């Protein structure tokens, strides 16, 4: 049965102005109308290959004054929502191309999804990575079953080599784009959200250059209920989507491709299909600071036991930053789309987030170099229930009078209020105490 609504007219109008030519040489970016039936067909076809991830009520709801539901796409096998679009893309390839194989050239979530699902479908898959790629990413793709080749020192070198291998051997060179097939696969998130959370008021998605998830899901949600507010969130450091929407075409001259911390959020705007759909169907796009993303990562780890990367945390960061006050008291879903945070970044991100959240602080003060003075300081810290993380003493390079010692303490507190109480208590006893501002 064909389902028709006035939203199909919006979709058709959104795609009517898309240029016919494309700079992509991998899979032709189809300008066919992305219909609700296409997204439904994708959901049926990939249902046995990807997880129907939970969308759970969050303990963060009370903190931000709204009913928050988290769509946990980081629980997919490769830790990313990109599996949905990739699986539908691969299963839609002609059989002769499936026999020849596919090739990708990056260390992104898209490439890892291609490596895994192509192997599961018994499609030969090759991943070209630069020599600067982290060993963990190389190991993961090999474990998924892909043939991984290290080539070149930059991503551009790897892409050039991949295209040459594709031409010489008949592989299909794949890179993330906004073909109707790929967007339909990503749009299945919108279908599941509508089914899992009744009476939704708004849904928050990661945005940035790779806004296929935002565009595809908006197509599904706006068809099912035009009154659901669809919101995209990107980084203030790389406002690629906002700039592209303002210009009316994808921005191609950004010097921000694949920033190490931000991942796909900092990528170039990759296509007119998703850009036009976003302009027509998305209600709002906001930008957040790096500090807000880091605190959001901390909140998800503490409240949801979820270890996510910047792309996964950026949706919640809009609430952390107070960018969406109109959602107070509403029922809101947030898509946590990626959990591929490298271990070497985890400790650095959490440590910085604790400082930004006013829960780790540092102060210095000068004491008399006599037995018992440091004990008195520790007594104050114990009375104020501050946990000492580190304490250092400096005698040689102290510029104050002789027989004094400069003590620098790093302590952990419960929250911002506790930190203020500790600071007041110390200043009362040590008026010259100096606090290190974050």
TrEMBL record:
Cofactor(s) needed for function: pyridoxal 5'-phosphate
Ranges for domain ACT: 362-438
Keywords: Lyase, Pyridoxal phosphate
Gene3D superfamilies, per database record: 3.40.50.1100
PROSITE patterns assigned: ACT
Pfam families: PALP
Example GO biological process: isoleucine biosynthetic process
Record GO terms (molecular function): L-serine ammonia-lyase activity; threonine deaminase activity
SUPFAM superfamilies attached to this UniProt entry: Tryptophan synthase beta subunit-like PLP-dependent enzymes (SSF53686)
Signal peptide: none
Domain of life: Eukaryota
Protein name according to UniProt: L-serine deaminase
Organism for this UniProt entry: Grus americana
């Amino acid at each position: 049965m064909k389902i028709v609504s006035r939203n199909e007219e919006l979709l058709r109008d959104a795609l009517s102005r898309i240029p016919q030519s494309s700079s992509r040489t991998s899979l032709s970016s189809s300008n066919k109308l992305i219909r609700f039936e296409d997204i439904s067909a994708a959901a049926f076809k990939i249902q046995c290959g990807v997880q129907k991830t939970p969308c759970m009520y969050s303990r963060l709801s009370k903190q931000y004054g709204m009913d928050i539901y988290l769509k946990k796409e980081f629980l997919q096998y490769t830790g990313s929502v990109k599996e949905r679009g990739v699986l539908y893309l691969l299963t839609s390839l002609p059989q002769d191309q499936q026999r020849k194989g596919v090739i990708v050239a990056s260390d992104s979530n898209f490439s890892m999804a291609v490596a895994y699902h192509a192997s599961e479908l018994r499609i030969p898959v090759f991943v070209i990575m630069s020599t600067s790629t982290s060993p963990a990413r190389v190991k993961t793709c090999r474990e998924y079953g892909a043939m991984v080749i290290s080539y070149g020192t930059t991503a551009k070198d790897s892409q050039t080599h991949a295209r040459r291998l594709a031409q010489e051997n008949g592989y299909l060179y794949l890179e993330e784009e906004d073909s109707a097939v790929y967007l339909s696969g990503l749009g299945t998130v919108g279908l599941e959200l509508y089914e899992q959370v009744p009476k939704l008021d708004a849904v928050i998605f990661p945005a940035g250059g790779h806004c296929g998830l935002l565009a595809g899901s908006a197509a599904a949600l706006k068809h099912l209920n035009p009154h659901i507010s669809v919101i995209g969130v990107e980084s203030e450091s790389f406002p690629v989507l906002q700039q592209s929407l303002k210009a009316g075409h994808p921005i191609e001259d950004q010097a921000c491709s694949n920033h190490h911390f931000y991942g796909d959020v900092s990528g170039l705007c990759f296509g007119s299909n998703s850009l036009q759909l976003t302009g027509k169907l998305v209600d709002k796009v906001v930008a957040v600071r790096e500090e807000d993303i880091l605190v959001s990562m901390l909140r998800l780890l503490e409240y949801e036991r979820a270890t996510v990367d910047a792309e996964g945390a950026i949706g919640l960061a809009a609430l952390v930053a107070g960018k969406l006050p109109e959602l107070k008291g509403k029922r809101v879903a947030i898509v946590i789309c990626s959990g591929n945070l490298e271990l070497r970044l985890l400790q650095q991100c959490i440590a910085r987030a604790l400082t930004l959240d006013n829960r780790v602080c540092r102060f210095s003060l000068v004491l008399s170099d006599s037995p018992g003075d440091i004990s008195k300081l520790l007594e104050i810290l114990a009375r104020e229930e501050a946990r000492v993380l580190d304490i250092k003493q400096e005698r040689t390079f102290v510029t104050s009078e002789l027989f004094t010692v400069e003590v620098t303490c790093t302590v952990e507190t419960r929250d911002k209020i506790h930190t203020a109480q500790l600071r007041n208590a110390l200043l009362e006893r040590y008026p010259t105490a100096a606090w290190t501002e974050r």
